[in-house]
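ok posting inputs for the NAI job
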Amino acid sequence: MTFEYAPAPESRAIVSIKPKYGHFINGSFVAGKKHFPTINPATEEILSHISLGGLSDVDKAVAAAQKAYTKTWSKLSGKERGKYLYRIARILQERAREFAVLETLDNGKPIRETRDIDIPLVAAHFFYHAGWADKLDYAGLGHSPQPYGVAGQIIPWNFPLLMLAWKVAPALATGNTVVLKPAETTSLTALLFAEVCQQAELPDGVVNIVTGDGSTGAAIVNHPGIHKIAFTGSTDVGKKIARAIASTDKKATLELGGKGANVVFDDAPIDEAVEGIVNGIFFNQGHVCCAGSRLILQESIADEVIEKLKVRMSKIRVGDPLDKNTDLGAINSKEQLVKIKELSAIGDAEGAERWSPQCNLSDKGFWFAPTIFTGVTQAHRIAQEEIFGPVLSILTFRTPQEAMDKANNTPFGLSAGIWSEKGSRIFWASQHLKAGVIWANTFNKFDPASPFGGYKESGWGREGGKHGLAAYLKTGKETGAK
Ligand code: NAI
Ligand code: MG
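and the output
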């Protein structure tokens, strides 16, 4: 006998959303000229109107960040900078519920994830970097490493506040000031973070947030007052940024796409592997650069794993992101839904076999059922291109070497997973996989102390850990960054 789940909606009373937002420049909110709506992708309800930043807004933000750098921030000791970071981390913890609800409303991801994963990781990132602020001389990054000055930071919509934390925390810890642009569909938590900066009495201009679209991002990239760029987003835009800064002295870290292989060997604990496969691709609606979007199964166990995976997928609850029972929320935007549908239709046309459990999807909002494709070959576009949605391509292998060859046969190299009972096989496979992050018998685990980044078209440089600090310091040893 199975029981239906009664709805368990989280209250949204804790958030207060203004009808209109300006930019956060020099410690205050300043009105923007043009605005565009931000919606709740689960309902298409307009939540607020966000300012579309132009050249003059970016100019003002860079000027404020430069002034804050020379007059205040660069004069503070690492210990004093650390105090601000600790304060921000504690306020984020205190206001965690508010951030979790707001992120779920603006992004469409389930409250279970914002509450238990995004926001705790955000606070952890600030705590971790607060600890580094006064120890940079002892980090093995050269004698007295120096910040660049103003860092320009452009972030995507899949983990809005977490990507802000990945960018802002190391920049401030290393003594840089910041001009950050959130993604157009998910600016609200960045604007709430601006309030946290005020609450923490962070000196004016140390953090500036200019909202807008790709043109605003390009204005940050091309601004002569910015010497360090940190970007997370699509490989296409990453390439544009690389071209834009090619003849300049600007440094950049680029965290781009992926097509992660999740490799399951015949000696793997199957039930655990099925959980890991589900977490690898259906976490955050599959809007994850390091998602395990290619499942590479040993042929002898393929039928058993696929059967168990289908049973498990039938239990995934798709629906209201604010419901505490929901596993899979809304697709972040109409554009992204169109892209997922298009690539899935290409999978059908190429001859792969599609399967999804029965789901009742709402007519309002943007939804896509959890989906697997079997019979996928390496030449299929759904085995090569990033779908960035809840869609898994399944391939099989006979020998371990074949598994490695298939796993590495992609233009990307961000993440990979290995499922095996044997330590020796895990070590062997992790030496052969060309991926910046490799998980063994788990997937999508994140820690601020662990460097994150990719090979090939997955990007330049590392974020997080000691490696991530290096990218914000002039004499730092940069791992792969320009
Ligand atoms: P995008 O790369 O266009 O957007 C990411 C950020 O870059 C946004 O803040 C955007 O405003 C900004 N941007 C856009 N054009 C720019 C330019 N010329 N210069 C500077 N900044 C610019 O990503 P989009 O269009 O939202 O998603 C498209 C695809 O990208 C997705 O389907 C997915 O495959 C991939 N993607 C990968 C992400 C990752 O975490 N690696 C995150 C988001 C998207
Ligand atoms: Mg939105």
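notes: The two ends are 59 Å apart (CA to CA). The first strand starts at residue 23 and ends at 25.
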